[in-house]
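Q: What residues go here?
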């Protein structure tokens, strides 16, 4: 941070303050100007500069029916609960490499087998194509659970960050209707309403790393037809939430999607779902990927994965409610 620049107030630590200050000083080209190919290339370059995730006993690239790419992460060679991870990236970018470090940390910290899915991206494949892929990957994993090192009693949970949180939730809704249902959900800073009308979209949508116009552009790619944006197959706010498994929702104070996450937690409770909402003061959207610049972001990610692991490892015959995870 330059001595002439005002300090960034209200963030979790100095490392994150420097990151936010740099974002404000050099915001770079907009998503609209770059387009999907440019965004994907920029994401590839960012990932190349980040430190790798922890080493694991087994990491293997796989392929489900229909040539759907997957990557398996196992923290041990013995059976473990399995998590299908759906990556974020505004519905238009992201792949197995962009979230490799996050998946490694999830596997190690939560002590679970992680199966990451490389879902199709918009605008080439608008919604709900990515949801279709997540459902297909879940079905394939259910049939291959023993080979994947999964624990059949723990079944398969789902997790996702940002747009991946929206996709994971929508896939879980469909799986609850058709079976088998996921055993749990972890949604980190999820896109939860395509209307983008919540107050924090504008309050936190400028200068915090994820701009309001970026969000609008992402939604336009995911669902080009504005008349379809309230369709429950693509918009979590209008989905039928009853019957979903225990769900952990993580939000961040300086995230334009914070209000959407708060509202989703309330919707889930109203639908009778066991939900544990974890706010993160002083953090920004995408904090799971900022552990290399912020000790607070790193610690928050660790604690979040520990909570999810505790949920997935609890005895199925004596399952406490999710609110008891704080005990």
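A:
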């Amino acid at each position: 941070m330059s001595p002439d620049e005002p300090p960034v107030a209200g963030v979790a630590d100095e490392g994150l303050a420097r990151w936010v200050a740099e974002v404000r000083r050099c915001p770079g080209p907009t998503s609209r100007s770059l387009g999907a190919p440019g965004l994907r290339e920029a994401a590839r370059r960012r990932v190349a500069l980040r430190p790798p995730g922890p080493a694991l006993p087994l990491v293997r690239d796989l392929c489900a029916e229909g040539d759907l790419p997957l990557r398996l992460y196992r923290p041990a060679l013995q059976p473990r609960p399995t998590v299908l991870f759906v990556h974020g990236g505004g519905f238009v970018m992201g792949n197995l490499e962009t979230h490799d470090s996050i998946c490694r940390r999830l596997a190690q910290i939560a002590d679970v087998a992680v199966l990451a899915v490389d879902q199709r991206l918009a605008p080439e494949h608008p919604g709900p194509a990515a949801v279709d892929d997540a459902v297909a990957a879940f079905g394939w994993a259910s049939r291959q659970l023993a080979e994947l090192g999964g624990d059949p009693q723990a079944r398969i949970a789902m997790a996702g960050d940002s747009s991946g949180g929206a996709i994971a939730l929508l896939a879980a809704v469909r799986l609850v209707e058709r079976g088998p249902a996921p055993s749990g959900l972890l949604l980190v800073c999820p896109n939860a309403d395509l209307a983008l009308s919540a107050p924090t979209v504008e309050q936190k949508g400028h200068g915090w790393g994820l701009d309001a116009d970026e969000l609008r552009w992402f939604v336009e790619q995911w669902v080009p037809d504005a008349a379809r944006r309230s369709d429950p197959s693509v918009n979590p706010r209008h989905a039928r939430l009853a019957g979903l498994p225990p769900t952990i929702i993580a939000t961040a104070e300086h995230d334009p999607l914070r209000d959407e996450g708060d509202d989703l937690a309330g919707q889930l409770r109203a639908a009778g779902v066991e939900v544990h909402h974890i706010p993160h003061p002083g953090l920004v959207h995408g904090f799971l990927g900022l552990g290399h610049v912020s000790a607070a972001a790193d610690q928050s990610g660790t604690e979040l994965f520990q909570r999810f692991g505790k949920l997935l490892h609890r005895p199925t015959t004596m399952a406490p409610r999710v609110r008891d995870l704080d005990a």
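A: Context that may help when evaluating the design: DSSP finds nine helices and eight strands in the chain. The longest strand covers residues 275-284.
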